[in-house]
Amino acid sequence: MSIPTPHIAAKTGEFARTVLMPGDPLRAKFVAENFLEDAVLVNSVRGINGYTGKYKGKTVSVMASGMGMPSIGIYSYELFNFYDVDNIIRIGTAGSLNQDLKVRDVAFAMGACTNSNYVSQFELPGTYAPIASYDLLKKAVDVTEEMGIHYKVGNFLSSDTFYDDSKGTMKWSKMGILCVEMEAAALYMNAARAGKNALAICTISDSLVTGEETTAEERQNSFQNMMKIALEIA
Known about the structure:
The chain is α/β, with parallel strands linked by helices. The protein has a single domain, classed as Nucleoside phosphorylase domain (Rossmann fold). The protein has 6 helices and 9 strands; from the N terminus they run βαβββαββαββαβαα. The chain has a 5-stranded mixed barrel with strand order 5-8-7-6-9, surrounded by 4 helices. α2 runs parallel beside α4 and α3 packs across α6. It starts with 17 loop residues before the first strand and ends with a helix. The mean pLDDT is about 95. Catalyzes the reversible phosphorolytic breakdown of the N-glycosidic bond in the beta-(deoxy)ribonucleoside molecules, with the formation of the corresponding free purine bases and pentose-1-phosphate. It catalyses: uridine + phosphate = alpha-D-ribose 1-phosphate + uracil; a purine 2'-deoxy-D-ribonucleoside + phosphate = a purine nucleobase + 2-deoxy-alpha-D-ribose 1-phosphate; a purine D-ribonucleoside + phosphate = a purine nucleobase + alpha-D-ribose 1-phosphate. Its EC number is 2.4.2.1. It comes from Anaerocolumna sedimenticola.
């Protein structure tokens, strides 16, 4: 496959070594406009906005992943394998499965369980456990503690289904799963296969325990703590 790819129009060298990856293209736009200096739009194919700019003198990129493992699977694969990106930091939202993880808290995915069949493509003779880059995770925790932000580190569930007909998502909580989202496991698998680094940082947008939730506008434009953490470690 050549550059540009079927899904990304950027040219060689237009992405930084570290890419922040929210699900929502408008959240990518928000990060670029509010945190990056001299941000340039390097991709807009299918409305998946990608920007490169400066944060405290460092070149950083931010590009949306879309929703779900198939979508982030495509974009992270192309960034890792064709644009020479070394680090992808997901900055997304998740639903809490833990009574101590409240709306607007920050959570880090040390690992990512999944109900997806994404791993089958690698033809492994067993069960694979997708995990974060330890270096990125440690840096993120250190920065978060310096900032005095409430956080939890643990295992996520990356689900293929948002509307779960079996109503079984809460069952994962008995195994200590912190929260449910839809992308981290595929990102971690792609990073492992490419020999690159990945970390998922999520803000809790709703709680399956208490029923509390945030609005679409809040998810798009707020949740700035996770953005600042990701930018500091980029």
